[in-house]
Amino acid sequence: MILSAQASQIRNLFLISKCDECIQASEKIEASSEEFNSYQLCQLYKILSLFEISQFEEAQKQFINLIQEARQKKGSLIDQVDLLTLSFYQWELCDYDSYECEQLNEELFKAIEIYKSDHKLEDLNTDGVYHLAQAMYTFIEYFQYDSNFECIEHLKRAQQLLNQKLDQEILFLMGWMLDYLGKNEEAIEYQLKLYSENQYFPSICNNISVTYKQMGKDDKQEEFLLQAEKIQPKNIVVMHNLAINYNQKDNQLKVEEYFTRSLAMYPNNSHTHYMQGHILLMKGEHQLGMEVLQKGIQVNPNDCNIYELMSLFDHSKFQEYMQKCISIRPKKSRYYSLMADRFLSLQQIEQSLNYLNLALSCKQSEADYVKDSIKKVVCYRTLHNYQEALQLIVQTLEKIKTFPNSLWGFQICKIINQLALPSLQKISILDSNNSRYLQKLDEIVRYILEKAKQSYIEGLKINPRFSQGHNNLGVIYQHMNMQEEALQCFLNSLEINPQDYQALMNIGNIYSEKNQLEEAKQWMIKSLNINPKNKDCHLNLGTIYIQMKKYKEAEQSYLRALDLDAQDFLVNYKLGCLYSEVLLINPSDIEAYFNLGQFYSQMNMFKEEKQSYLKILQIDPKYFQAYEKLGNLYFNMNMLEDAKQNYLKSIDLNPQSAISYFNLGITYQSMSMLEEAKQCYLSTLQINPQFSDAKKRYEQCDILLFKNKVK
Q1: What pLDDT sits at residue 434?
Q2: Deepest of 365, 559, 648, 701, by most Cβ within 10 A of its Cβ?
Q3: Which ranges of the chain have pLDDT less than 50?
């Protein structure tokens, strides 16, 4: 592809961030049939310049006009300039609106297909612009869903074939794509290479700052952000990133400065309201944050980011906000999935299933597909629809089995098996016809295990002193129910490395399965002596103690595991089972009910959590901690009046509870009762002067009350 002198001049202005001059120069160029491609390229760089100075709506409008002009001039013909126009526009649109970018990617795909049909295969193989278009299409199609690096190979091919034409644009795209794909080290190499050649390339300094931030190099991040601002002071993204940077440094004057400048320059850009509102909400300024977000909605009633953010902080309008998002972006699975979560937490299973079906009908990443499928299995099991649950498990396993990372697939199989095991047991008893599904599930798991087993055996032939390899092979033998082979592998690992705590734990697991509990316990303790932070070992030791009827020791083991990972589903589940078992032995055990309530809270089982605390109050109406937990529960459900009443009862029973005063203060603040909130924070500090969060909120209330008086 050859750029005309006119197009080269316009491009050169863009390349050094002279965006206003680029726009002005391109506006003087008129379209002609003879030089239309030159005109189209000039207009393309004008559109890119509009994006760079944050004239997003004008850029989109100009793009639509340009495409219409191109079709009027060229009819159905698609040439290199058309592919370049669509590809470069996608580059800018992706950062501004990834959802619209995804929809437009279908047009890029159609254009590529038309172009392919008009060219021979050997010509396409040597066509740099074609490979650039393929790179952009592939990236947009997969980057939100899976780490597909085909786009990088296409870009490298384009770079070779174009022979320094569009070299700076390709370097930029290479760094940009690699950053999105999580390859920060590789991304920064391309970004710094472009920077060394042309530090004024649009957005390169901003992108370098983002990559450095992800690499944990905050000093470098600010340095390049400030340079980005100097090069292009009209770029709203740079202003927002600077505001975020200064917020993290608690420099609120600078935060306010950049948001004020952004709003003054672009009063109709709702993303500033979103960013500012988000920061305020995270600082606890609920009322002010929501007011800012509402202003953003007035500016742009279709800003889904704002609706989603408001749904997190105003539970009473969660469904209203999510439905608004769905009406605006009906092909985005995330909104359906969030609605499903909401109904699942309320135990409205049928509604949850409906939204999960809608989520699964949309384009999703493999991780989201598995996540929503597991939620659907949970719904089916809750409804006792075991047949559907089993079918879905098999379908999910079949879909993910084809992915190249078999060990990752194996982990997913383990998770699904753990979640589904009670259902599988019930199915085999209730309906013998399900054996074909069980057989299919078994085939898939055995296939993955056999592949992994062979890989480790071959690897150990090459390096027989690789202790971790012996241990991993032993784990596979365990899952294949080949316990003696597994035991030998673990002993081999210990012979090479006596400090292999995983092998020690796995030997304990084998003895546990043999019901040799004392031996199993001793192996687990040996493992924990070497690595006391092994969560799985604490979990396994807890299960052994339960089998030995040593419930206090079991609880201690589970709580140690929970200290290491408070969000672990299995640890919380095991704790719940333990407390339930204790209550069967002693139905008046208040501590067991309290702990069971905390377990239900972790599982988002709010109805059951509430019943646990109410049961405590039936046994002992003066157990103030139960009122405190009920207050937390009601607050999280946005039932602020009920939360307030329970916190007041907790304080009445225990006037020295600093946390109850503090939580009551947060509740009053959420109800916009600032004087009452301020008094609660003061009471908190009188009980505990070191309570720093109470001090911060007390000062916030002071500021908000002052602002209200000024108004």
Answers
A1: 45
A2: 701
A3: 401-434, 436-437
What tokens does 19 get?
């965006």
The answer to whether residues 520 and 512 touch, using CB atoms and an 8 Å cutoff, is: yes
* Per-residue b or e along 639-655, where b marks 16 or more CB atoms closer than 10 Å to that residue's CB: bbebbbbbbebbbebbe
74: tokens are 């060229």
206 and 187 Cβ atoms separated by less than 8 Å:
no
**DSSP 3-state of 305:** helix
Please give the DSSP secondary-structure letter assigned to residue 691: -
pTM for this predicted structure? 0.57
Nearest to 615 by CA among 589, 636, 640, 576: 589
Is 41 within 8 Å of 7 (Cβ atoms)? yes
How far is the C-alpha of 443 from the C-alpha of 429, rounded, in Å?
A: 20
Contact (CB, 8 A) for 600 and 576: yes
Please give the mean pLDDT across all residues of the chain: 85
Residue located via tokens 């209730």: 430
Residue with tokens 């408070």: 566
- 155 near 131, Cβ under 8 Å? yes
Q: How far apart are the first and last CA of the chain?
A: 62
Q: What number of other Cβ atoms are within 10 A of residue 429's Cβ?
A: 10
Amino acid at 561: A
The confidence score (pLDDT) of residue 2 equals: 65
State the pLDDT at residue 340. 95
The whole-number pLDDT of residue 68 equals: 92
Q: What are the chain's domains?
A: 235-330 (1.25.40.10), 333-462 (1.25.40.10), 625-711 (1.25.40.10)
Could you give the CA distance from residue 690 to residue 687 in angstroms, rounded to a whole number? Answer: 9
CA 1 to chain centre: 40
Tokens of 398: 């079949």
Helix axes 674-687 and 692-710, enclosed angle (nearest 10) = 150
Whether the Cβ atoms of residue 6 and residue 38 lie closer than 8 Å to each other:
yes
Residue with tokens 């012996």: 470
